[in-house]
Amino acid sequence: MQVKNELIDKLFKNFMEKPTIELLKHYLEEEIVFPSSILRSTKYAGESKEKRIQKSLFKQLIDKYEKENVTTEYAVGGHWKMAIDVDMFNGTYGIELKVAEQLIKSATNVERLLGQIIYYNKRRYHGNMIVLVVGKATEYNSAIKELVEFIEELGGHFIYKAI
Length: 163
Fold this sequence. Notes:
Number of helices: 6
Strand content: 15-25%
Largest sheet: 5 strands, mixed
Shape: globular
Mean pLDDT: 91
Order of helices and strands: HHHEEEHHEHE
Helix content: 40-55%
Number of strands: 5
């Protein structure tokens, strides 16, 4: 009986802590902090900037929402075995991470991101997907602003974190 009560308490706690998309966006915008060194290639040899950001974000999200509610490289289903960078609450919310300089320098990366938004929203998130772009304040330029329009038209949410 004790185990059953503990399980019920845990399920209730998880249910009560599940944020709305707006609360999650607010948390990401206001509370998530990345060290300024995270974008410097020389400090982290052999690990991509996006992977470093993903690890840092994952740690911060599990501190807030608990490990069982946050997953990295979550398979969205379908034939191509695509995975979103961060999933929350077992397919409820998805977060795709990008580095601003990689979007600014490459139309291919922008095309890939737009395809990911379409696919992930269709397969799993249905408007509950956030694109989190991390970069220098000066990289939030007209190209990124244009991209925001497309992301929102495709049903995604956009957050820019300047470091």
